[in-house]
Amino acid sequence: MALTGSSTIADALAQYNNNLSWEGSVTKAAAALEAIRFILVNRPAIVASNNRSVNFESLAAEKIKLEEYIAHAGSSVNRCPFTRGRMLT
User: Fold this and answer.
1) pTM for this one?
2) Domain boundaries along the sequence of the chain
3) CA distance 24 to 32
4) CA geometry: angle at 30 spanning 18 and 37, to 5°?
């Protein structure tokens, strides 16, 4: 899900929650990072519902981890698939 200008905080929180297990997946990490950026930019004074609240400092720390992971794992530098070739006779 790509967040847009018409997305809501609820959309961003849903996207973040759907990608909590981002370790090992550049796609999930990118989606989680997009959600965190959206939340941090569009955050109201307080985000709370159903006895839950969002701590923006922990999101900022998570944002840094996601950016580092994507920069490392998402890069195509030094990545080549290994295949085994057999001569056809």
Assistant:
1) 0.60
2) 9-73
3) 13
4) 85
Please write the tens of the pLDDT for every residue from 30-73.
999 999 999 888 876 556 677 777 677 778 888 888 888 888 88
Which two tokens mark 57?
Answer: 């400092």
What tokens were used for 81? 């698939």
CA distance 33 to 31: 5
**Ramachandran angles phi, psi of 78, nearest 5°:** 60, 30
Tokens for 22, please give them: 């981002």
Rounded Cα distance, 5 and 84, in Å: 47
Q: 């994507």: which residue's tokens?
A: 70
